[in-house]
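Hi all, a correction to my earlier message: I attached the wrong file for Probable enoyl-CoA hydratase, mitochondrial. Here's the right sequence:
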Amino acid sequence: MASVGVITRALLCKNVINTGRVSISNTGFIKFYSTAPQYENIKTEVVGTKKNVGLIQLNRPKALNALCKPLFVELGKAVKDFDADKNIAAIIITGNEKAFAAGADIKEMQNNTYSSNTKDGFLQEWEDISNCGKPIIAAVNGFALGGGCELAMLCDIIYAGEKAKFGQPEINIGTIPGAGGTQRLPRYVGKSKAMEIVLTGNFIDAQEAEKMGLVSKVFPVEKLLEESIKLAERIGTHSPLIVKMAKQAVNQAYETTLKSGLLYEKSIFYGTFATEDRKEGMSAFIEKRSPIFKNE
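and the right structure:
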């Protein structure tokens, strides 16, 4: 059987069909066509029946969406722009049918040194994703390897196509994950499984990723983006303010002890009682009607 390293090198030699703005063809695939603002390495679109979902497609198909710095600068800008847009309820990051992102751009980092990494703050652009206040959904088809897997884990929810592959193969090129792979992965799948993935560089398929808790749901390839948009739209039916507070509370579970986390949760819970949306939500429930939340 070919090694993971051989497979990875083979993958990097393949081309992928590039698509842009969203439409659904009669085959069920969602296609993309370029739209403003223009980027070189990503494409963006506002989708959903209410046009309240920000969609970002990684767009380096010949490199299987390898995560170079220019791509991440653009990705960070797009995420921040959607986060600041009051009309956007949630954000989706996706790739194409072949690859979500097959890892970092090895050629770009090959000549880096410890000194240059430290001085330049290598990978600091990734913080723009984790700092986003709105929910981010990773819609993963194809390969999510190395930095691609780490990018998916930066998101709040991961939906996967049935042919998706996840992995942290950095060990094969003499380094380790550097954007959260050794820290987030154990929190999601446990120490033993994370050790196995990181120390072997082996890939895991979508079904196993779902079983271990890395992925929320698995769908047919052609249904993945459609289902991800439905999820984002469902989130968009709730109060934007309360959604943001709920995201903060859940994320706190990974940053602190259980006791401190419970205290934080309680403070956020109490805080919802100072909002008009909490009052509207409970009033609507009692009055048996749909709530009307403020878009702020």
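Sorry for the mix-up. Residues 1-29 have pLDDT under 50 and may be disordered.
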